[in-house]
Specification:
Blueprint lengths: L5 E4 L3 E5 L4 E5 L1 H11 L4 E4 L1 E3 L2 H12 L8 E3 L5 E6 L5 E7 L10 H7 L4 E4 L7 H8 L3 E5 L11 E5 L4 H14 L3 E5 L5 E4 L4 E4 L12 H14 L4 H15 L11 E2 L2
Parallel strand pairs: 1-4, 1-9, 2-7, 5-6, 9-10, 10-11, 11-12
Antiparallel strand pairs: 2-3, 3-15, 7-8, 12-13, 13-14
Length: 265
């Protein structure tokens, strides 16, 4: 793929599913990039991986998914890993997390200049206190971010959030994001569906029915599909519909996107 118009920036990791003894490539920015590409968008991923086997795996997986990895930095440390387990209630929990090469990642100036020319940029986890979000927003770039991993909605074209399974709280969060300066606020509430607002209207949607295998990455899939529908000019309702259907498909398998899993050692 030559060139891209949409970028995702931030986290990648190896998700290690402890009960299943299998692992997958994941991370918010990576999952969103892959799903946007599968929706036909030209996408580049900006982030950092370690100079190790896991880093090579992340790059190979993204390349196989036709995501441009030319901006990825190689760092002399381990690639990020996340251990996923099941608690007593049967819910997915993060048992261990090492941000590895992602910690302290900052796109160099040449990459930031490239990002300032994007049609849309989605930010994943970045420990930069919102610096890149503010820079891109000031440059007039359309930016989205999941506020579950980085707070601060000011300047965002789309602010995504999560309210557990509380629809009433989802409505409150959507209003809070708009008050903070987001142009569109989107809040998911698990099996209770989702809410989207733009200051003029607020719409709601139920979750699409699905036999759930795993919910890891479903929220990232939702984000990618909403962004795609929004860029295509869809209404809030149409964007929620596309997003809920896409998220349901991700719930049918392990991993944030369909891929070849590897056994844990």
């Amino acid at each position: 793929m030559s060139g891209f118009e949409i970028a995702t920036v931030g986290d990648n990791c190896i998700d290690r599913y402890l009960p299943a003894r299998q692992s997958a490539v994941g991370g918010n920015a990576v999952n969103v990039a892959v799903h946007l590409r599968r929706l036909g968008r030209r996408v580049g991923y900006f982030g950092a991986v370690g100079e190790d086997q896991d880093g090579r795996r992340v790059l190979a997986c993204l390349a196989a998914c036709e995501v441009d990895t030319s901006p990825v930095l190689l760092r002399p440390c381990r690639t990020a890993v996340t251990d996923l387990d099941i608690d007593a209630a049967g819910d997915r929990i993060i048992a261990f997390e090492d941000f590895g090469a992602c910690a302290g990642y900052r796109p160099p100036e040449a990459d930031r200049a490239r990002l300032r020319g994007m049609r849309h940029v989605h930010l994943g986890w970045l420990d930069d206190s919102g610096a890149l979000r503010r820079e891109l927003a000031a440059a007039g770039v359309s930016v989205s971010q999941d506020l579950a991993v980085n707070p601060g909605a000011h300047g965002l074209a789309i602010a995504f959030g999560s309210a557990g399974e509380d629809r009433a709280r989802a409505r409150l969060l959507a209003r809070e994001f708009l008050d903070q300066g987001a142009r569109i606020a989107v809040v998911t509430c698990g099996a209770r569906g989702s809410v989207a607002a733009d200051g003029a209207a607020m719409v709601e949607a139920d979750a699409a029915p699905v036999e759930v295998v795993d919910t890891t990455g479903a929220g990232d899939t939702f984000i990618a599909a909403f962004i795609d529908a929004h860029l295509a000019g869809g209404s809030l309702g149409a964007c929620l519909e596309a997003a809920r259907q896409a998220a349901a498909l991700t719930c049918r398998h392990l991993g944030g996107f369909a891929q070849a899993l590897q056994p844990l050692p």
